[in-house]
Amino acid sequence: MILPFRPTSLIFKIILVTSLILIVAISLSVWLNIRLHESSIKNMTYEKKKIISEFIEKNVIRTMEKGRHFEIHAILRNFTYAGIYKINVFRPDGLITASTLEKELGERVKGVDFFLKHPYFVREETITDETGRIRKERVSYLNRPILNHPECFQCHSPQQKIIAVLTVANTLRKVEEEVSKVKRNTVLIAILTVGFLSLSLVVIFARFVNKPVQRLTKTMRRVEEGDLDARVAVHGSDEMGRLAQNLNTMIEKLQTTKKEAERYHQELIRRADRMATLGELASGIAHEIRNPLAGIQGAMLILSEGFPKGDPRREVTEEIQKQIHKLERLVKDLLNYARPAAVSYFPTEINPLVEKMVSFFLTHRGEQHHCSVIRNYSANLPPIMADPNALEQAFLNIVLNAQKAMPGGGTLTITTKATLSEEGERVEITFEDTGVGISKENLRKIFNPFFSTRPDGTGLGLAITKKIIEQHGGTIDVVSEVNRGTKVLISLPTGKKEEEQTQEDMSDM
Question: Are the C-beta atoms of residues 458 and 329 closer than 8 Å to each other?
């Protein structure tokens, strides 16, 4: 079975890390087990030699007490089995008086002082050809001093504490073979364990993780390609099962949302068609109404002048003229909204444009209604590509709305600054008044055509303003609270990012 585990996949990394942890843990366990087993074998060998040396010592002393020294050699030879290589008895001067190896009888042991200073000790040494290695094997020596007893005073001086040293030597070949065997078996078991666990991890991840993930990925790929009828088969109620169920739920919601969006899109298309038809109709009606309105207004002006001041009929004719003027503004706004003028873009400086509009407002409306303007213009603003006349109209609509929201007078703060976003460099213009504010319910409707909270409003000013801002690739946002004023934020692109991208594309060509 070939498993699709790429080196970059999460499953491969988890298996790799887990296997490394297992290798480290099992290796440490193997090392400790080998050391403990090796120590156990050595301790067993040591205890065995200790028991043998104690038994030999008792027999040697008993034999010497009886004066039967010639039997010591036979006693020693009785223990030359089970790995015991040799047993020697030598005097304090180093002379070997009894040995299981006849060739060592009469020889002298080197370093007797070391044995005498350490009456009881264990020494392990590696014996080589140059240093006395026996048959190229390591030999372990246990040296046990035979102390002087009153029973021995007949042959030894009472002042002599040690009358002889008993040495029991055994080869370590079997010990080393046993340790090597343990090492081999333990390492083999460790390798098999790591391999089995790693293979088990691979199978487990392939069965319970990789396959469900592949099903999820395949389904998500189908969804990306537009197939919203795709579903994941749910197996079990574990994490993968819940994830599959959640993905199916998400796809169902996405499918529902798509259908709703399509219905809404179709509704928008139908509405746009109706609006286009209504726009053409309104434009035609506006043209037809404009000329009669002009005639009626002229006639009412002449008729009004024929009545003396204070005549109620004059007041009626003047009120009719006001309503005719309102109809003219409505017709004008309707024409601008239905058939906006063609926009011509030029490099435009925002600050002079805003200042021109502010001066016009203060001259004709601001001072009369006790409105003051605070200007916070940032210097060195980048120019934008815009139609100055269209933007001036949009800004003026916002300022006029602010003035009408401050019937008793107030302060309008205008701020300009440059900002940087993912789309590139932009210029922001903020209009903030101290007026009555807008309720949350009406705030959602302010850009709808013909929506107005004032009896004399046409409801097209902000709709026209939004259309102008969007024609310039900008955005307009309004934040307001009742009795706390209104803040209008306009953001316009400078066009630098598009120019840089165009230059890069041309350089690539």
Answer: yes
Give strand pairing partners of 427.
Answer: 418, 492
CA distance 198 to 206: 12
Tell me the residue type at 113. Answer: D
Residue type for position 356: K
Per-residue pLDDT at 499? 45
**Of 506, 509, 482, 477, which is closest to residue 492 (Cα–Cα)?**
477
The parts of the chain modelled with pLDDT lower than 50 are 1-3, 119-122, 125-134, 497-509
Measure the CA–CA gap between 211 and 230, rounded to whole angstroms.
17
State which H helix or E strand residue 18 sits in.
helix 10-65
Is 413:426 a contact under the CB 8 Å cutoff?
no
Q: How far is CA 170 from CA 45, 85, 127, 299, in A?
A: 9, 5, 12, 142
Instruction: Please state, in angstroms and rounded to a whole number, the distance separating the CA atoms of residues 308 and 321.
Output: 16
Q: Cα Rg for the chain, rounded, in angstroms? A: 54
For the whole model, what pTM was predicted?
Answer: 0.44
- The whole-angstrom separation of Cα 397 and Cα 146 is 122
Greatest Cα-to-Cα distance within the chain, rounded to the nearest angstrom: 173
How far is Cα 104 from Cα 408, in angstroms, rounded to an integer? Answer: 131
| CB atoms near residue 6 (< 10 Å) | 9
Contact yes or no for 148/160 (Cβ under 8 A): yes
Task: Let me know: does 235 contact 241? Beta carbons within 8 Å.
Answer: yes
CB 351 within 8 A of CB 391: no
Using CA atoms, how far residue 97 sits from 105, 142, 296, in Å, is: 6, 17, 155
d(CA 233, CA 212): 9
For 81-124, the pLDDT digits (tens) are 656 777 888 887 888 888 877 777 888 877 766 666 654 444 55
- Could you tell me whether strands 410-421 and 371-377 are parallel, antiparallel, or unpaired per DSSP bridges? parallel
What span, in angstroms and rounded, lies between the C-alpha atoms of 415 and 487?
Answer: 11
Query: What is the reported pLDDT for 154?
Result: 65
**In this structure, what token pair is assigned to residue 414?**
């205008």
- Domains plus CATH for the chain? 1-227 (3.30.450.20), 346-502 (3.30.565.10)
Determine contact, residues 439/482, Cβ cutoff 8 Å.
yes
Characterize the bridge pairing of strands 486-493 and 424-433: antiparallel
